[in-house]
Amino acid sequence: MRIKPVLFAAALAAVAPPANADFNDNKPVTATVTGATPSGYPRTMVEGLNAVVRDAYPGSSVSFKPNSPGGGVLAISEGQADFTATSTGTEIRLANEGRFPFKQPLKGKFSYVMQLYDNQFIHFLMTKEWAQSNGIRSWADIAAKKPKMRLAINRPDNPQTTIGGPYEVMRAHGFSIEDVEKWGGSYVLGNSSIGLAAITDGKADVFMNARNLGDSLVKDIAGKRDLMWIDGDPAKVQQASAVFSNKMDMVPKGTYPFMEKDYPTVRMWVSLLAGAHVSDETVYKYVKAIAENETRVQAIGGSLKTSFETKKMAANPANMPFHPGALRYYREKGLMK
Q1: Within 10 A of 270 (CB to CB), how many other CB atoms are there?
Q2: How large is the average pLDDT for residues 61-85?
Q3: CATH number of the structural domain 24-117+270-332
Q4: CB 233 within 8 A of CB 239
Q5: What CATH topology corresponds to 120-268?
Q6: What is the pLDDT, as a whole number, of residue 22?
Q7: Rg of the chain, C-alpha, whole Å
Q8: According to the model, what pLDDT value does residue 20 have?
Q9: Closest CA relative to residue 110, chosen from 133, 76, 142
């Protein structure tokens, strides 16, 4: 029996692969970006990035969904969002391995899109009053003298500013976060604003969290309470930093009025990730919009102003697999081989 030409053509169409999408068209995209808290700079950053994409592709629906850095990785892995914009090497490694705060390995369920900035610095501060009363100038002093401290630090389910920074620095110097309580101390748990408020109000002695260098709030507090930076061994801080693909950097003398020398700290990078379910076209277009509007992205302010550059977007300190859509753009533009 002969198959009629029309039916035969329909049969071929049913099995033939779809034509490649024109990734360079101006058709709108739809995406949800998460990972940022409901307020503060992270939200400002995400909303700013999304606006760049919407303007590049008129009619796009690119929205923000509040979450935490760790919660953002989980959300994109489960298809509850498409991108997460606040991930560091800490969230990536813990998620891949299924370690706290993740309950199971998420490897293969998300991939790398771009580095947003690499200038998130952990601030290790103490009040001068507490430091002098306990004879503390350095991490080595804390390890040796085991002082009672009221520590302002983030919650462990925000791992980039706890597990991926302070916890590892403590471990490299011979003690752990659990020792704080063993030595009679206590915690003020919360974001950096909560921690600095506790320092200001005399409810905390030591602060460990991320702020931009030269932060105006830290300078303001230093005018009310004498502060000091916890000194350390650069080699040990580098050892701690490398665990989650970060690096040690020196905070220059004079960054704050109370700094009489350079001090070592953990310098972190922050990235945009995408869930495995997100189409190559959506990722390609998001990357293209950001890459081709460098000045506007920098104008969002904060860390993007001082650190974002198109040529650094393909930097991948954790050596994660790239999302195919991102990889396609970087190769087309010569940012990667």
Answers
A1: 25
A2: 97
A3: 3.40.190.10
A4: no
A5: D-Maltodextrin-Binding Protein; domain 2 (3.40.190)
A6: 78
A7: 23
A8: 52
A9: 76
Rounded-to-integer distance, Cα 169 and Cα 236, Å: 7
pLDDT score of 4 more than 70: no
* 120-268 and 24-117+270-332 share a CATH fold: yes
pLDDT tens readout for residues 125-178: 999 999 999 999 999 999 999 999 999 999 998 999 999 999 999 999 999 999
CA dist 85 and 229 (Å) reads 29
Contacts of 297 (CB under 8 A, 6+ apart): 48, 49, 52, 290, 304, 308
Per-residue pLDDT band for 240 (boundaries 50, 70, 90) equals very high
In angstroms, the CA 70 to CA 128 distance is 34
**Structure-block tokens of residue 185:** 């101390």
Six token digits for residue 103: 């309950």
The pLDDT confidence band at residue 39, using thresholds 50, 70 and 90, is confident
- Domain residue limits, the chain: 24-117+270-332, 120-268
Residues 33 and 62 sit within 8 Å (Cβ to Cβ): yes
Tokens at residue 256, please? Answer: 């704050």
What percent of the chain has pLDDT above 90?
90
pLDDT at 337: 85
